[in-house]
Amino acid sequence: MRERAVINRIAVLAMHTSPLEQPGTGDAGGMNVYVAQTSRRFAANGVEVEVFTRANAPDLPPVVEMVPGVTVRHVPAGPPELDKNDLPTRIAEFASGVVEAGQDGFDAVHSHYWLAGQAGIQAKRAWRAPLVHTAHTLAKVKNAALAAGERPEPLARVLGEEHLAAAADRLVVNTEIEAAELRGLYRARAEQVLTIPPGVDLDCFTPGDRAAARVELGLPVDAVVPAFVGRIQPLKAPDVLLRATAELLARTPSLRERMVTLVVGGPSGTGLDQPELLQRLAVELGIADVVRFLPPRSGAALAQVYRAADVVAVPSHSESFGLVALEAQACGTPVAATAVGGLPVAVADGVSGVLLPDHVTERWADALAGIALDPVRRASMSAAAVRHAARFSWERTTEGLLAAYADAARTEVGACTCTS
Ligand code: UDP
Asked: What residues does UDP-N-acetyl-alpha-D-glucosamine bind to (predicted)?
């Protein structure tokens, strides 16, 4: 058996968003949760972590201790307030800031998303450390499934991802589907690509008392509650839930007295006007009295939202995994999701929830009603959802990543970008 390298110290690069930010709004979502959850567990395993992120607010301290063993460095690169579309123009600045700040050497570098990946390539070279990269989403996949009116991902990103597919020593993906996409669309080599499923915080997201959760949220205990949780942007398609709600009310007008559709999250990306557009849509559909918008929340407060819901809708156009689906299931709430990206892995179709092929309103109404209005089916799906989610944990993800770093340190397979 091959000897494993010892990993004591790693650099985690996340240019566009920090693990210290509230997920579910702006650019902060699953990637933040991934970086925060795995970093904590690396530290718990005795591995020192430095997270490098762009200073995206004025007056941020240069260095913050997230938890003992995890340091977050705010690297200046351009004006703090910067549109995500302008971030590529600051990659070089970010990369040199990272290389300069991280002089003490690392056993491995893990970059997240293509922007940080470009800095990762530079860091690999400067620090002579192996580079492990996680794309989180891929431009070529995203561009093939754009929501109506959404701008395609730019060529710079496509080329940046292609560069990473050649240069990184390991490419970590969430599912086999993504592994095949990297090999097929980006010509990644089989030995580069490692499938390591993401996790869910099984201490925080636990089944609980639905009635108590509803009381805490000010909802009637006997309400019918479908919910959407996540960044509010066209890609996530929360409008599908609103249309399905209207359809259910048209079919059964008496439901109106006890239906509450929750939309939890904040504006994000190209959908900065989305919360207002959604509110307008609710008015147009005649369901403004039924839909409740709640600001993003974390931890125990978010778990209560999942527990209060009868069903959580994940109608995304594309989704590399869908942590929300796992979290809801861990709380015992079945999920209705589109069968895209990693969602067929995150949700066991017909067992812990249902997968839908498209966004047809009638189909979504049927799916939501089939869970929320059928207590016996819901109860059996709820139990199955808890079992399904328990197959995933951040401890397992962290173990897989540490093995990947050690493996990459033993045998670097990325294309050499060294000039010296
Ligand atoms: N999230 C949160 N508060 C909210 C809404 C979302 O903390 O109000 C978190 C959620 O718990 C999940 C992440 O944001 O861990 C979203 O991850 P997902 O993979 O579902 O979508 P992404 O944002 O990565 O596209």
From this structure: 22-23, 30, 231, 236, 297, 319, 327
